Task: structure prediction
Amino acid sequence: MDKFSYALGLGIGQNLLGLGAKNLSVEDFSQAIKDILDGKEPAISHQEAQGIVQEHFAALQAKISEESLKAEKVFFEQNGKKEGIVTTESGLQYEVLVKGSGKKPSASDQVKCHYEGKLMDGRMFDSSIKRGQPATFGVNQVIPGWVEALQLMEEGDKWRLYIPSELGYGAHGAGEVIPPYSSLIFEVELIEVL
Result:
C-alpha cells in the first residue's frame, strides 16, 4: 500500500461524506482522477462537470430543506398542545419559566439578557451564560423570533422560546453552526431594559 495515496483518499473521502456525497461510483470517481493525473482528455468537460455537481447539490439541499420543514411542522403542532406553551400568530412558541414584573421593552430599546441557544437536536450553539457575561443589544437587531418575544417579556422574565426557521435564520442558516431551515430553542432571561 502506498500510504500517501491512501492518506489523500481518506481526506477526500471524509470531505465527500461531509458534503453529503455518499452514493458515488468509486470506479468512475477513480477513473476521473486517473484521467487527470495521466493527462488524458476527460470523458466530460469541466464546465459540464461543474453543472452536474451544482445540480446534484441543489437537489440534495432542496430535499434536506423539505424534510426539515416537514419535521418542523410536526414538532410545532405537537409542542403547541403541551401545557404552558403559548403560540403567537406568527408561529413563535414560548413557555414562561420565571415570571418577572418589570418594564417591557419596545422595538427601539436596548436590553440586557442572559441566554442559551440550541438546535432541535440539543446541540448548543451560543450561550451568554457560558461566557459569564450578559449580552446587550437592540431589540430590533436580532432574529424576528427574538424581536417578537422580547416585546412580550418583562424585566425579570425567563422564557423558553421555540422559534420556527422562518422567524430565525431561514433558508440561509448562520455560518457553519446553524444549518438552513433550523428551528431554534432559546432560554432567555430579560435582565434589564436599558
Summary: Residues 46-79 form the longest helix (34 residues). The beta strands are 86-87, 93-98, 110-119, 124-127, 135-138, 158-163, 184-193. The first strand starts at residue 86 and ends at 87. The chain has a mean pLDDT of 93.
